[in-house]
Specification:
Number of helices: 10
Helix content: 25-40%
CATH class of the largest domain: Alpha Beta
CATH superfamily of the largest domain: Thiolase/Chalcone synthase
Shape: globular
Bound molecules: oxa(dethia)-CoA
Number of strands: 15
Order of helices and strands: EEHHEHEHEHEHEEEEEEHEHHHEE
Strand order of the largest sheet: 1-7-6-4-5
Structural class: alpha+beta
Oligomer: single chain
Number of domains: 2
């Protein structure tokens, strides 16, 4: 009998302010920049994204997603002994968004009359940009498999609207804000039951410049550009090959093949990247979960947002095998193969 980490609940949250392509095109036009709804839909598949209001942070979105996730799993904050938040847009330099989330969950539990509040387990952030969620779920899985944790809340939460350059039409139309969460709990079985079957993570820093937000805080000032910059074509070309590689590796590690995959839940960056990956894996498009049209690229939040959508819609069912995969700044990429 082996120790597995199984997904016992999912949750997600999009901030209420919905921005259409046309809303952004109008803003760009006012700045003398040309764009159109047709261009954005055709090149990316994106129709809307959601932006937070002033004063709303990644931990606020994470909190809403986490609460929904705990409800879905019939668990309380006090049951959680590990919180990992994947984010590149944290509330502050430190403490971690995970620590802030833990405090918010504890306060909410106390307000709900649960005198236990929170469990006081470990809480930390993972920074791997759009691969952040697969990185975080891999770390949580390893901690559960070694007995270091039994009940892990893994969240992807982003407020990318804060780091977008609205004078750059090549990037500002692509990204949005949101959060998604899964609860991972320890389970013991002989390998046929639910759980994370394998994970696969990679990074190559030589590509660090093609997608970055290079600014930093020093001596009380922001040094360098604090806004996102990307060579979209370079990222696109690299992404398609890397996603196929990591998908093949994770299947091999789990002793599975393309044919065993019931659902592909890819990072939601661009519909063209998703369809290319599906084609390479010989997966029909009906088996690919696509939500990019609704929220754009929400970086580390996009995989759990798509996963929660498909679970709540009744598409992904218990016992099915789900392949999650992501690629992003760093360059980082990776995947997780899960039996639900
Ligand atoms: O989350 C991490 C991973 N990130 C990604 O996966 C993003 C990967 N990259 C992409 O998704 C695509 O490369 C983009 C969506 C960013 C761009 O699509 P593309 O088909 O590669 O377009 P392009 O960069 O080749 O640009 C084609 C044309 C250019 O004009 P010219 O030089 O042909 O005159 C761009 O300037 O489209 C122009 N363009 C726009 N036109 C209207 C770029 N942005 C816009 C825009 N509206 N918003």
């Amino acid at each position: 009998m082996t120790l597995f980490a199984r997904i016992t609940g999912t949750g997600s949250f999009l901030p209420p302010r919905k921005i259409s392509n046309q809303d952004l095109v109008t803003q760009l036009t006012a700045r003398g920049l040309d764009s159109s709804d047709e261009w954005i839909v055709e090149r990316t598949g994106i129709k809307h994204r959601h932006f937070v209001d002033d004063g709303v942070h990644a931990s606020d979105l994470a909190f809403e997603a986490a609460r929904r996730c705990l409800t879905a799993a019939s668990r309380k904050a006090a049951d959680v002994d590990l919180i990992i938040v994947a984010t590149s847009t944290p509330d502050m330099v430190f403490p971690s968004t995970a620590s802030i989330l833990q405090h918010k969950l504890t306060l909410a539990a106390l307000a709900d009359g649960d005198t236990q509040g929170g469990a006081g387990g470990a809480a930390f952030d993972v920074q791997a940009v759009c691969s952040g969620f697969v990185y975080a779920i891999s770390v949580a899985n390893a901690m559960i498999q070694t007995g270091a944790a039994r009940c892990a809340l893994v969240v992807g939460a982003e407020v990318f609207s804060r780091i977008l350059d609205f004078n750059d039409r090549t990037t500002c139309v692509l990204f949005g804000d949101g959060a998604g969460a899964v609860l991972l709990e320890a389970a013991t079985h002989d390998g046929d039951g639910p759980g994370i079957l394998a994970t696969d993570l990679h990074a190559d820093g030589k590509y660090r410049d093609i997608l970055c937000t290079p600014g930093t805080v020093s001596g009380g000032a922001v040094i360098g550009n604090p806004l996102l910059q990307m060579d979209g074509q370079a990222v696109f070309k690299l992404a398609v090959g890397l996603l196929e590689n990591t998908a093949r590796k994770v299947l091999e590690k789990a002793n599975k093949t393309d044919a065993d995959v019931d659902w592909l839940v890819p990072h939601q960056a661009n519909i063209r990247i998703m369809t290319s990956t599906a084609k390479k894996l010989k997966l029909p498009l009906e088996r690919v979960v696509v939500t990019v049209d609704q929220h754009g690229n929400t970086s580390a939040a996009s995989i759990p947002l798509a996963l929660d959508h498909a679970v709540k819609a009744g598409q992904i069912k218990a016992g099915q095998i789900v392949l999650m995969e992501g690629v992003g700044g760093g360059f980082t990429w990776g995947s997780a193969l899960v039996r639900m």
